[in-house]
Amino acid sequence: MKPLKEKVSITLDSDIVKEIRDLAEKDDRSFSQFINKVLKEYVTQKKNIN
User: What distance in Å separates the CA atoms of residue 42 and residue 7, rounded to the nearest whole number?
Assistant: First the structure.
């Protein structure tokens, strides 16, 4: 069973949005999929440090 996803709204700097869009395209992912991937990696890394 797939994990549940929750719809959220955030405000980001326009230069960051452009960079994320570019990186997501290079990674062949949607904007949301890429942000989810990056955040998941970040949270996992932070959990392992503490």
Answer: 19
- Quick one: how far is CA 40 from the chain centroid? 7
Q: pTM value?
A: 0.83
Query: 4-47 pLDDT, tens per residue?
Result: 889 999 999 999 999 999 999 999 999 999 999 999 999 999 99
Query: In this structure, which amino acid lies at residue 38?
Result: V
CA distance 4 to 48: 24
Instruction: Count structural domains, the chain.
Output: 1
Full domain range(s) for residue 44: 14-49
Contact criterion met (CB below 8 Å) for 20 and 35: yes
